[in-house]
Amino acid sequence: MEVFNFFFQQSPKITKILTLSSIFISRLTWFEIVSPYALYLNYSLIFKNFQIWRIFTNFFYFGNFSLGLIFHMFMFFRNSKLLEKRVFKGSAPDYLYFILFCMLLLFIFNPLTKIIFLSQSLTFAMTYYWGRKSKTTIVDFMGIFTFRAPYLPWFYLVISFLLESDFKDDLFGLIIGHFYFYFKEVLPRLKCVNNLKILETPRFLIRLCEI
Fold first, then answer.
1. CA distance 211 to 208
2. Is the pTM above the cut of 0.85?
3. What's the gap between Cα 46 and its chain centre?
4. Which of 11, 75, 78, 157 has its CA 20 to 30 A from that of 85?
């Protein structure tokens, strides 16, 4: 109980919602209330059978109970918390827009990768953007490797490659994270676009976060 109290006290609002959504969906599958086959991303079932929930549920399912699941869920929670409390500090609508934008791009371009659960890709998009916005932060990995935050997603990518695991999910998320970084941080500074702000947070998200 104390762990849950600590979680609710220390975590910002959007991170709570995202993490609890992931825990809730995972528990449904662990107790066999819902099958993972009812959650994965399937465009045919979404557009022909109107199973709209698949658009969202595939982002919050990390697999069967295992050490890998615990690791990826911890990464998801940690990165979300760091982004919301530091990078998007005091601006929940902007952070929510970041999450929705990444989810939208992952959903649109996923037919090129055919990934059925995009939770890991979303986590890597979060990791990439946090790293680019935390250039001076030093990351210590298990007391063995020390490097600056922007290299963290690349380090994870190399580890996945060396372990011969499927790093397609990670690479896809990294690319989408860079898309956001470019449109948010790089493009508006170019003289040719005259300070064009493509990723301005919509007003309805600002009102939604004020509720």
1. 6
2. yes
3. 21
4. 157
User: For the stretch 185-198, what's the b/e string if a residue is b when 16 or more beta carbons lie within 10 angstroms of its beta carbon?
Assistant: eebeeeeeeeeeee
Tokens 């990670």 map to which residue? Answer: 170
The pair of three-digit structure tokens given for residue 47, joined into one six-digit string: 């557009």
CB-hemisphere CA count at 13 Å for 21? 16
**Residue in this structure with the two tokens 């709570």, named with its chain if needed:** 16
The pLDDT value given to residue 2:
47
User: For 94-146, how does the pLDDT look when each residue is reduced to its tens digit (9 = 90+)?
Assistant: 999 999 999 999 999 999 999 999 999 999 999 999 999 998 888 877 667 78
Our measurement of the distance from residue 76's CA atom to the centroid of its chain's CA atoms, rounded to an integer in Å, reads 6
Closest CA relative to residue 113, chosen from 105, 48, 52: 105
Distance CA 48, CA 40 (A): 15
Q: Which residue has the tokens 């760091």?
A: 82
